[in-house]
Amino acid sequence: MADILISEVGPRDGLQSIDRIMPTEAKKRWIAAEAAAGVREIEVGSFVPPSLLPQMADSAEIVAFACTIPGLNVVALVPNAKGAARAIEAGAHAISIPFSMSETHSLKNVRKSHAQMLEEIAVIAGLAKAARVHFAVGLSTAFGCTMEGPVEEDQVVRLAVASAEAGAQEFSLSDTTGYANPAQVKRLVRAVKAGVGAERMTTLHLHNTRGLGLANALAGLEEGITTLDASLGGLGGCPFAPGASGNIVTEDLVFMLEAMGVNTGIDLKALLDVRAIVAEALPGEPLYGFTPDAGLPLGFEGIAA
Amino acid sequence: MADILISEVGPRDGLQSIDRIMPTEAKKRWIAAEAAAGVREIEVGSFVPPSLLPQMADSAEIVAFACTIPGLNVVALVPNAKGAARAIEAGAHAISIPFSMSETHSLKNVRKSHAQMLEEIAVIAGLAKAARVHFAVGLSTAFGCTMEGPVEEDQVVRLAVASAEAGAQEFSLSDTTGYANPAQVKRLVRAVKAGVGAERMTTLHLHNTRGLGLANALAGLEEGITTLDASLGGLGGCPFAPGASGNIVTEDLVFMLEAMGVNTGIDLKALLDVRAIVAEALPGEPLYGFTPDAGLPLGFEGIAA
Predict the structure, then answer these.
(1) Which residue of A has its CA nearest to B243?
(2) Domains in chain B: boundaries
(3) Domain A5-294 maps to which CATH number in 3.40.50.150, 3.30.70.260, 3.40.50.1970, 3.20.20.70?
(4) What was the pLDDT predicted at A114?
(5) Beta bridge pairs of residue A172
(6) With an 8 Å Cβ cutoff, are B294 and A245 in contact?
(7) What is the domain class of B8-19+45-248 according to CATH?
(8) Which has the minimum average pLDDT: A26-40, A99-113, B71-85, B227-241?
(9) Measured between CB atoms, does B249 come within 8 Å of chain A?
(10) Cβ A298–B146 below 8 Å, yes or no?
(11) Per-residue burial over A138-172, b = 16 or more CB atoms within 10 Å of its CB, e = otherwise
C-alpha cells in the first residue's frame, strides 16, 4: 500500500501542450508501461472538442484501453457537461474539471464566469452521481494568475465550498502559473481543508516554472496532501497561461519520496525506462528531469530492491 | 535585518569548476554588484596552490578587495593549514575547510585520512583563533558519496563533534554529491545540532543534482538552519565527485524565500541583473535558474518594493 498516490498527467496535460499528435498505439504503450511500473492513477485524456485539441481526439479509445489495466484508476479531464457525458460514456473511473480561480483566466480559457462554472459543475455532478463516477474539481490558478496577479485565498476557499455544495467530491489545488511557494501551499491547503473537509482536499497539481515544484510538494505532504500530480519527463503545463510551463517531473518526485522513505508503490528504475517509449513516439521533444540525467545515487534502493 | 543569511559561493565554488579563468576585474565587479544587491556573505576565493587551481590564483587580491566593501562578510575556502595561513594573511573575515565525511573521498580529494584531517583542523583552529578569524568546517559528502554510497549519520556526528573539540566554531552540512533528501536533511541537522550545539550547526550547502535542492533547503529552514549557500546561475559543484554537479541557484533560492515572506535582505531584481556581469565575463558558459528564465510573477514584490 502506497503512502502517497502519484497521479500521472502526462498523457493528458503533457500531450495537449505539444503540437504533434502522439499515435494512439504509443499512448497505450506509455500508459501500460507506467501502470506496470506501479503508477496507480493516470489522467489519460480529455474530452475537449477535437477541433480544439486534435491531440486528444482518441481519448474515448484511450480510456477504454486504460480501463482494461487491472488496478489502474483512469481519470479524464472534462471542460464542461458535454465533455463529462462523453467521458462517462467512455468508461472513465473519474472525471476532473479545471475551475480557474481567476475569473479573467476563466473567461479567457473557457469563456465562462465563476457563476457559469458553478452551474456547469452542478450539472456535471448530477451526471457523475447518476453514473457512479468520481468527480473532482481542479482549482486552477489558485496560487496566482498571469493575467490578474495574486488571487485572494478567501476567494479560492469560497469557490471550493461552492463547488462542494454543487456536488464536487474532491479537490486539487493547481499552480497553473508556477507562482506557488511553500508557505502559500501550506496556508491554502489548510484553508481549503477547513472549508470543504480534509477528506476532500487531497491533491496538488504543481508546476516547476520557477524551480519550486518539489519544495511545494514537500510543503503539501507536510499538510497531509495524499495525491500529487506529476508528468513523465515534465511534459506539459498550461497552454492558455502565457509564460507558464512545466509540470513537476514524475521521476524526480518519485525519487524524492522514495529517498525520504515515503512509499509511492512505484519502481523508479522501471519508471525511468518508460521515458524511452515517449522519446521514441515524440522524437526531438525535450524530456526533462534531474534524476534521469544524474542517475540514481550509489546504493539507492527504491521498492524495486 | 535578514531572517536568513544567503552565502554566495559562486566566485569560489562556481569559478573553480570552470576551466576558464575569470579576469580579476570581472570577479571584483561580480562581488561588488552582489553585495550592492544585498548579499551579506560571499565566499570569494580559495587558497589552493595555483598549480592545482589557476582559477583561484588571485584569491589574495580578491579577498583584499572584498574586505573594502562595507558590511560584507568575506569568506575564503582553505584546503589545509598552509592555505589557512595565506587566507588569514590576505585578511579574510572567515575561513572554511571542507572535511569529507567519506574517508574514501577524503583520501582521493586531499590525500588525508579522517585522523589527519582532524589534526589539520586543530592546527587551523589555532591559527584562526590567534588571528581572531572565524573558522568553519564544511562536512562534505555528508549525505552520501559517489565512491562509498551511503555515509553513516553517526559518523557525521562523531566527526563534527571531534572537529568542534579541535576548535571548529561553526558547521555546514554539504550535499557534495546531490544525494540528500528532505527527510535526511532534517534528521542530520537535528543529529549534528545535538552533537555540537544548535548555535554551531547553522549552514547547509546544497546541490540541485537531482532537482531536490530547494526542497532540501526548505527542510533545513524548518529545522532552524540560518545560512544557506547558493551560487549565482547555479555555477559550480564538486569537480572531484564524478557525476555530481550544480549548486542551488541563488536567484531561485531568493525567490522562494522572499515569496514565502522570509526576508533575505536581497533585492531580487538587482540580483538578477548581476547575471549579465558573469555572462559577459564567461561568454558561452551556461547560467542556470528557473526564476531568471520564467521571470518574476505578476505582482511579485521582493524587498525592492
Answers:
(1) A294
(2) 8-19+45-248
(3) 3.20.20.70
(4) 98
(5) A138, A203
(6) yes
(7) alpha beta
(8) B227-241
(9) yes
(10) yes
(11) bbbbbbbbbbbebbebeebbebbebbbebbbbbbb
